[in-house]
């Protein structure tokens, strides 16, 4: 088995690479540039630098690989990147599948997003059969991931296509990740302002293992939610503080204030500013974005980690390396 993994600069791909190397599998990993050397030399690891939107680079990366895990994506939430979202997240994904078919790759695992599927409540969480819901139907990132799923499923008769849909990833060893930023906010402030909604939280190691299991045992054309614990933001910060023996004042942000921030963020972007605050993102923080992992547990045999593992400050380190 020779596995190509795209997006090695990212936290998830980094953890998938560590898992595969531990299993003795040969890995070829793509990186955007050499300015973020998150990986060091390993006898079974080949790093190649290039642009995932460049077809010549895609073909170079694919040749000789029996399996592909596509993790590279544009995730920055900025409305001015509409065309770039489609070029990076949709067109390059389809081009990668076409190259995989051309050069005889047998399996293609695509890392999408839970937000391409409909969320639910604690009592009735979202599943793989639920249709995408507002406000994510207005998110250019989520839309591009949904379009990418649809674009590659057209080829499932020619190559085995597996899609995994992670929820919000926590844990790992990168404090600059999304979960790392939440950890810093929750542990370094005396007052924490939290929105009225909630998320499903899943450990990065579970997503890495789930992706590996999906590539091994997943059914062609199927989606698998990699999800774990559904929590309101208030409960998440309570657990984060308790786990790390910290104290802070938790202050709720009402929905109308969140929407005001979102409108202000959109105006700032329209005036040429750069911010991830938008009305769509603020609306998303006001909903209970909850999902079920029943299908992944039943069909992939995944046992998910306790939440405490992912919110321990001891797990975070700056600039982790893979070594011999």
CATH superfamily descriptor of one domain = NAD(P)-binding Rossmann-like Domain
Number of helices: 11
Main sheet, how many strands, which sense, barrel?
Answer: 7 strands, parallel
Instruction: Based on Cα principal axes, name the global outline.
Output: globular
Count of β-strands: 13
If you had to describe this structure to a student in words, what would you say it looks like?
This protein has about 325 residues and is an alpha/beta fold. It has a domain at about 1-175 and about 200-230 and about 290-305: NAD(P)-binding Rossmann-like Domain (Rossmann fold, 3-Layer(aba) Sandwich), CATH 3.40.50.720. It is about 40% helix and about 20% strand. It contains 11 helices and 13 strands. The chain has helices at about 10-20, 55-60, 80-100, 140-155, 180-190, 205-215, 235-245, 255-270, 280-285, 295-300, 305-310, and strands spanning about 1-5, 25-30, 45-50, 65-70, 105-110, 160-165, 170, 190-195, 200-205, 225, 230, 250, 290. Strand 5, helix 4 (about 140-155) and strand 6 form a beta-alpha-beta unit. Helix 1 crosses helix 6 (about 205-215), helix 2 packs parallel to helix 3 (about 80-100) and helix 3 runs parallel beside helix 4 (about 140-155). The longest helix has 21 residues, at about 80-100. The protein starts with a strand and ends in a 14-residue tail after the last helix.
Keywords:
about 325 residues, alpha/beta, Rossmann fold, seven-stranded parallel sheet, four-stranded mixed sheet, 11 helices, 13 strands
């Amino acid at each position: 088995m020779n596995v190509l993994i795209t997006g090695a600069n990212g936290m998830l791909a980094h953890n998938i690479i560590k898992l595969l190397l531990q299993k003795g599998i040969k890995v070829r990993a793509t990186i955007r540039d050499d300015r973020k050397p998150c990986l060091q030399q390993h006898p079974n690891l080949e790093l190649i630098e290039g642009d995932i939107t460049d077809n010549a680079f895609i073909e170079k990366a694919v040749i000789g690989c029996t399996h592909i895990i596509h993790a590279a994506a544009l995730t920055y939430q900025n409305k001015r990147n509409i065309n770039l979202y489609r070029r990076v997240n949709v067109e390059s994904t389809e081009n990668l599948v076409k190259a995989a078919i051309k050069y005889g790759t047998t399996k293609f695992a695509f890392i999408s997003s839970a937000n391409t599927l409909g969320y639910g409540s604690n009592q009735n969480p979202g599943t793989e059969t639920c249709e995408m819901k507002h406000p994510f139907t207005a998110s250019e990132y989520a839309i591009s991931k949904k379009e990418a799923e649809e674009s590659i499923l057209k080829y499932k008769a020619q190559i085995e296509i597996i899609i995994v849909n992670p929820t919000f990833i926590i844990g790992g060893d990168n404090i600059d990740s999304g979960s790392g930023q939440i950890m810093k906010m929750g542990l370094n402030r005396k007052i924490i302002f939290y929105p009225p909604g909630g998320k499903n939280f899943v450990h990065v190691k579970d997503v890495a293992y789930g992706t590996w299991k999906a590539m091994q045992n997943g059914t062609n054309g199927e989606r698998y939610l990699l999800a774990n614990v559904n929590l309101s933001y208030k409960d998440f910060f309570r657990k984060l503080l308790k786990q790390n023996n910290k104290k802070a004042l938790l202050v709720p942000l009402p929905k109308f204030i969140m929407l005001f921030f979102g409108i202000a963020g959109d105006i700032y972007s329209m005036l040429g500013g750069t911010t991830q605050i938008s009305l769509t993102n603020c609306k998303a923080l006001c909903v209970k974005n909850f999902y079920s992992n029943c299908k992944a547990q039943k069909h992939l045999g995944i046992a998910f980690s306790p939440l405490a593992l992912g919110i321990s400050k001891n797990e975070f380190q700056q600039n982790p390396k893979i070594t011999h």
